[in-house]
Write a structure and sequence with these properties.
Rossmann fold; six-stranded mixed beta sheet; 3 domains; 713 residues; 18% strand; 25 strands; alpha/beta
Amino acid sequence: MKISILAAGSGGMYCGSCMRDNALATALQRQGHQVMLVPLYTPLRTEEQADSNVGRVYYGGINVYLQHAMGLFRHTPRVFDWMLDRAWVLKAAGQLGVQTAPEKLSGLTLSILKGEHGPEAKEVRRLVEFLKSDVKPEIVSLPNLMFIGMAGFLRRELDVPVVCELTGEDIFLDAMRPADRERVRQVIRSSARDVNKFVATSAFYADRMADYLAVPREEIEVVYPGIPHHYLKEPATPVGSALRTDSSPSGMTVRGSEPAPPEMVRSADPTRDHSASNGRPPTVGYMARICPEKGLGQLIEAMELLVEAPGMADVRLEVGGYVGGRDAKWYKALQARAAGKLAGKVTWHGEVTREQKLHLLDSSDVFSAPAPYAESKGIYVLESLARGVPVVQPAHGSFPELISRTGGGVLVRPGNARELADALAGLLADVPRRRELGQAGRKAVEEAFTEDHMARNMVQVYQRVLNERSSMSTRTQSSGSVMPSAVAMTSGLQVTGLRKEYITPAEPLVVLKGVSFSLSPGDSMAIVGPSGSGKSTLLNILGTLDPPTSGSVQLDGTDPFALSAAALARFRSEKIGFVFQDHHLLPQLTAAENVLIAKLAEGNVGEADAVRAADLLQRVGLAGRSTHLPAELSGGERQRVAIARALMNRPSLLLCDEPTGNLDGHTAASVADLLFELAKESNAIMIAVTHSPQLAERFGRRMRMNDGELVGG
């Protein structure tokens, strides 16, 4: 297979995404594929460069910025552009770029997203010309959403499918100003139809980006990161027990130890003995980029608590990682803080080589990088586990998946320094358990998370995309029509001539009289009107709870009333979310279990479901209330749980029946804000029946039901 992997450099620092792309290219090449790794924006900085790296940088950061900022540079000769694309120039400029706050880069981001129609068209064409003449790939992989604007041009000019990786872009995008963030998202969603397949680094992130991109979840594959084999310790010796990890509905991991069946047996590593007898004090390791986003500040806070725990007075912290100029002041303040209660207990290594990184990990008993944001990859977790070092991580993002799949650590509540300190103390004091976790993690990485595993999984994705394209081409030729892309599919709500009658002893009672309207994904509509006018009947039909007497409903190209009873129940569960005036939570279930109720009813709660439920509760501001029963929550909190429940299955249609009717004014406004925010993020169609003029005014369309007829704007 001939594969072109476009990889974005990150201004001279070690970057998890470009290191992943480099490792992927190396492994693919080793497996016999023809791979061309093409650096974009700035040169790649990796621990070792893939042989397939073309060396030259395309879409160079300086030229891109100048062409965005000034029309003159859109017409400069190639020799001038070539001078600005020199590696050392780009590296120096890139280091300044990564220090720029995201909110100041929204204009440039929008410009880049325009692809061949934007100011940087010259750079896009140069890249395509190179790929067309020198590479001739069968498939092209984009490094992230920032370059999705060129997907359509690549497909048309190269006549090949395009895959787009999803590796944590939301952190950058969410840091923009709200108005800019929304404009960027709309452009990205528009370009998503030009991508044949998306690939996320975790199931958590696939779920999150399905909402962000407004694409079907099945169009996002999951390929976990893989690390080089030389990170692994020497082969190990079997032991007779293994860690048991069970996912609870809240997304937390329950830890315990039990005799292991043969398929769960892990291996002990005789080269490791993290105990007090090895001549050094108990040691915590941190090896990640040094910035607030990776949680080093919270780790310092936890260490301050840890030194007060019994037997932990001499505990140490080893810190390694790149510090950008934007974070230098924060880093110095953190070092000054550590010079107090942690004086003499923290070693600051700064940026390290691969050998120094491995030495730091080998010198640690436990690893922690308690990122406060929901991390999409967690490569540093895999690196630590490869050395047999167990991890303590917050229970959000990709961390629950990685720890569940490897059995190599424990989870704590995000943002809880006390719980983090207690977990660290527990592992540092319990040598056998620590060793067991480390052995389990190391074995799991060897069996499923190396660069070769990652490459094989990516090849399967590439092959499926090529097969789908071939099949689509065959259908196109036989039918003489043009098939849509994999993501561009029939969507939206089409209501035509809905009529509903009820038989009475006298004459039929006509409740709906030929209601028709259509809405596209992301649209919102409020329906007002007096009691008895037909509003609730219409909502019941749209929710497939009651069939119409005549007329039709089409949701995402499907007539739900043409389905069998079982198929209709599945359709309703997958496509439609309900938010009622009374929350209708089950009183015997916790908040997390109520969010998961549809999955629980199916008996099919998976790891990704638990992670999504926990993420939704966090989004609605109830991360710390997931185990509370409805009776322990306020009215506004119960309605927030109901909103999270309605969005659990990523519905195409969100139906709200007086969603704020039972709330006081302030709480109603807060719940309405949340409802609009989450519905917009998931690109769902939202329809609400309400008596509140204030709420109705916030919807994109406002209709009035009068005696069974829907009228208005």
